[in-house]
Write a structure and sequence with these properties.
Blueprint (H helix, E strand, L loop, with lengths): L17 E4 L5 H12 L3 E6 L2 H14 L4 E6 L5 H12 L6 E4 L19 H16 L1 H6 L3 E5 L3 H4 L15 H25 L5 E5 L20 H9 L7 H13 L8 E4 L7 E3 L9 H15 L5 H5 L5
Parallel strand pairs: 1-2, 1-4, 2-3, 4-5, 5-6, 6-7
Antiparallel strand pairs: 7-8
Helix pairs in contact: 1-9, 3-4, 4-7, 4-10, 7-10
């Protein structure tokens, strides 16, 4: 077996490349942006709150003063916000990568809906990203770029089939989260199949961060400020946890490594933690019938079919 030369702490130069990351104001999204900016990439940081976005951008610039970092308001739970942000992002140059990271990790106890009348967790974690990826497909194609969907270990432990994706019946916070991650992962693989079939030069990849916790992550004012209790509890689980910085490694590698192939699933080498490696995704997320059903549901719910023909014709300006 060939030695893996990838060093997540010393990325190859990304000067001249442009990446958009959803959910950039904290956690995995922030540390992904930090790593991309440190390698010289132009980074578009997105989030719902303009003050938190400004704080996150300044935190990146403090560590990388010469970084090319811009901010863009984007709420993935709101399809109008998705379309507006996409219009701004694609109106410039091509896009080398799209990291579909934003999401609700701790769902509300009771089922909530968005202004578009979709269940909040599914709308935020799935529908918004499906619509955004489609809206930005021509920009990605013009740069022969890639999209990375963020999965979760939970899909291997509880393999809920999202027959009722928006949980109109039987809502629980945990089920809402796991179903959203089953859908996210399945859509990532289905996107790769469809992009290949349509001859669109964009890769679709899935990555998961393992078990990454705030309590094992360095403190950054306004970004990561865990309590002493969180630090203590998370450090008790040190054997099976890692920092958010390390959790971002598989996401960033899936987004930037030239050797990555469409349809791959990246995660920590030891499942919960470790260097980024190609892993095996859970069976349910690889089921093409489930994926096709979810794809059709999302296309109908968002009213946003993907523009394959326009993407094929795209050229970098």
């Amino acid at each position: 077996m060939a030695r893996d030369e990838w060093d997540p702490e010393h990325l190859p130069a990304l000067t001249g490349r442009r990446y958009l990351v959803t959910g950039s104001t904290a956690g995995l999204g922030f540390f992904s942006c930090l790593q991309l900016a440190g390698a010289g990439a132009h980074v578009v940081m997105t989030g719902r709150n303009p003050n938190r976005l400004a704080t996150a951008r300044e935190a990146v610039r403090r560590q990388h003063p010469d970084a090319e970092v811009e901010t863009l308001l984007l709420d993935t739970s709101n399809l109008g916000s998705v379309r507006a942000a996409a219009a701004t992002a694609r109106g410039r140059t091509g896009l080398d990568g799209l990291l579909l990271n934003a999401g609700i990790v701790h769902p509300p106890e009771r089922r909530e809906t968005t202004p578009d009348n979709h269940e909040l967790v599914f709308a935020t974690n799935v529908l918004g990203h499906f619509a955004l990826a489609g809206e930005l497909l021509p920009a990605l194609a013009s740069a022969r770029g890639r999209m990375v969907w963020v999965g979760s270990m939970s899909t291997s432990m509880w393999q809920y089939d999202p027959i009722d994706p928006e949980l109109e019946n039987g809502y629980t916070p945990w089920r809402a989260y796991v179903q959203s991650k089953v859908a996210t992962t399945a859509l990532g693989f289905e996107a790769d199949r469809r992009l290949r079939d349509e001859s669109v030069p964009v890769l679709s990849v899935v990555a998961h961060p393992g078990y990454s916790t705030s309590g094992r992550t360095r403190g950054i004012l306004g970004i990561n400020e865990p309590s002493k209790t969180s630090r203590f509890v998370d450090n008790l689980q040190a054997a099976v946890t890692q920092s958010k910085e390390h959790g971002a490694w598989p996401l960033v590698r899936a987004l930037t490594d030239p050797a990555v192939e469409g349809g791959q699933f990246w995660g920590p080498s030891r499942t919960f933690a470790g260097a980024p490696r190609v892993k095996a995704a859970s069976r349910i997320t690889r089921d093409p019938e489930i994926a096709a059903r979810l794809w059709n549901y999302c296309a109908h719910a968002t009213r946003a079919p993907w523009p394959y023909e326009r993407a094929r014709k795209a050229r970098r300006r």
